[in-house]
């Protein structure tokens, strides 16, 4: 090699800038194309000066398009312009004079030095990712016209080694159904011994055509070339032989068969130069998987000189085959040809969907993803989704008898929405699902074991090692927290003792409520895990556990505290916040009947201590502008609490009351009459609700409805008597204040003075009407229960109210609905007496 | 796979096939049908529409999208799809697990 990588390092003559240089690199001067005034001419006009004067842009007229003559010199000949462009930098020819052109050593960026075979950083990955054949293709450069070099190898070495590992697949990199792709970045060891197809194509067809450039030859390749050149007359056989094991065996039998005549007829691809043995490459591609290619590469790197010897079997049989060749050709040719065809088709069909992810691949990946999500206990980590979907399923099962899964449960630990990969999992049979489950379990156990072993390893260290996770980052301070919450000072049980205590503070209440919630949640979870009905012992044990849990809840409810231990009673304190009210129906479900009744009694006894009763919000006013903001917010809050109470607690009380007998009802009524100012409580909505419930229950017991199968057995005389007495007493204390129960009356009464603006108009709003309706219902219950003489009193007490309502309903300016409502309300009461509003004039 | 993360993941799993509005940290609000969610709360939305199309004209042609969980600021959904009581319970459980 002369000069610098083949470049002629002679400096261009400054005095003759225009002469195109043919030897070596002519510098840019030659591009001037003879123009004295070329822009690139360094030595041009400013010769006298030491500075180089640049004349760019001084050229008027056309673009300087006359540098194209030396394009070949610059870029080298890259072969025909088609889709088979070779990107790699294989030097086009060995550094000997080429017969083609008279130019000197190629002045291109081709490197004559090949990278170390093992160190080629790119090819392996390409190899592994794509078919090895893609990487394997290397141009063969045996120009037939080049003088054969002295052979260094025995002729027994089949040069066919270098057989063009013909195109990786039927399709090239660019989608053309041909052109073997060549390595992008140079030879992989695997490819080094497999010269590419194009080279093979080029070789036979255009022998004078320089091999595709851009391929870095390995040592092995050079050897191949040399050996190849030694046998220019038999280029085809080399190409036929391949490194593929199967092919080797086949080749062993059909050694020399593929005469030059065979390949050309097979050429059905774009390249007119039918690359011989192209049909062999498909098997090579598919069968030589990623591991195989690297294995081959390793072998090649270890035995470069054997690169040509890839088919030892072939080698062995080569001499033999050589002799047989002439005999075989006629008969074997056809057979081999057919075999080739079949193989090619088979390979083509098998490799049609290469490089695509099929369903099995996607399932594989999905399984991996699922394994990440899998847990042993679905309820532990996936609580919301599980319960939600269970609830929805139950709802829909009731709503419409049909299946409508909202959350598909795939494995024990993972679930997807139906819109997820449901189809795919739908196709999974039972076998795959069970396999999946097994794998998931194994994964979970592995993870658990792994965790355990980790902890063990850390025990050798001094001190405490705490690994923080996302949920519990490593704490900066180690604050001791005792596990037993009951012993904390905020727990009321430890705080004070004695006959009387101060009321629970808000903080204590909230803490107690949270503990209560925890207990209820645990109980519900326990109930969910009921053992199958077959195992009696387990069921017993489970029942015991549930019972214990209920006991714990009962204790935490503090119902058994003495009645007057504090004001409000601890239980009442718990029921004051909305949180507690919402909890009430849930825990009611779990309490046994007796305890529920105790609860009921307690509530009724301490009813006035409830916030919603003691500080009931005044009836809503249409215009609140005169109230301060604090007032408004306070009222709103109270309203919310009341609503929540009515929504959550009162229905529960109702249910309990419905289960009571008359004696109990009488007792409850008596308690309430004794312990509270009945009328004051009755002014509140919860109070009204409670009394209505009691009275209606009494009525239904007293007059059992024959149609209702659930009605209680008729009470005995003693109970009835007791009831009557208590009721009379109840009515007597209530009667004077009856008309004040109505919210509308209340508003009117308070409407004097500055509060007059707060008064609602005669045409009361919906809300008021509704509240009035509640009271009317109460009065109706009263009326129904009332004995004859009392009824007159009742009517008398409510007379004005009734008249007022009826008259307003008949007033001209009242809408139809309002009128109906008013009449309905009044009639509720009047019907209880056997009267009707129409009877009133 | 930390247990604390699972609550939100579990919650979103129940929201699949519902219409939600995702507001991103770059103030882009996207309304669409929740197709799938993963443990990082990455969201796949189908049939999306942008709240303020004039400010984000590049979204005109987008029909489906994948949103990385870390860029989400808010997710808005209809209240009837959420069981708040159950959510409270699930949160209590999660808190207990975290304390353990």
From TrEMBL, chain A:
Region feature Disordered, mapped onto this chain: 1-45, 70-214, 310-334
Keyword annotations: Cytoplasm, Nucleus, RNA-binding
Gene Ontology molecular function terms on file: RNA binding
Localization: Cytoplasm, P-body; Nucleus
Biased composition (Pro residues): 140-150
Compositionally skewed regions (Polar residues) per UniProt: 81-91, 152-162
Gene Ontology cellular component annotations, sorted alphabetically: nucleus; P-body
PANTHER family recorded: PROTEIN ASSOCIATED WITH TOPO II RELATED-1, ISOFORM A, TOPOISOMERASE II-ASSOCIATED PROTEIN PAT1
Protein name listed in UniProt: Topoisomerase II-associated protein PAT1
Natural source organism: Dioszegia hungarica
UniProtKB/TrEMBL annotation, chain B:
Intracellular or extracellular location(s): Nucleus
Molecular function terms from GO: RNA binding
Keywords of this entry: mRNA processing, mRNA splicing, Nucleus, Ribonucleoprotein, RNA-binding, Spliceosome
InterPro entries given in the database record: LSM_dom_sf, Sm, Sm_dom_euk/arc, U6_snRNA_Lsm2
Function: Component of LSm protein complexes, which are involved in RNA processing and may function in a chaperone-like manner.
Family: Belongs to the snRNP Sm proteins family.
Sm domain residues: 7-81
Protein name: LSM complex subunit LSm2
PROSITE patterns per UniProt: SM (PS52002)
Primary site of residence: nucleus
Keyword RNA-binding included in the entry's annotation: yes
UniProt cross-references to SMART domains, sorted A to Z: Sm (SM00651)
Organism: Dioszegia hungarica
SUPFAM superfamilies named among the record's database cross-references: Sm-like ribonucleoproteins
GO terms, biological process: mRNA splicing, via spliceosome
Annotated Gene Ontology cellular component terms: catalytic step 2 spliceosome; Lsm1-7-Pat1 complex; P-body; precatalytic spliceosome; U4/U6 x U5 tri-snRNP complex; U6 snRNP
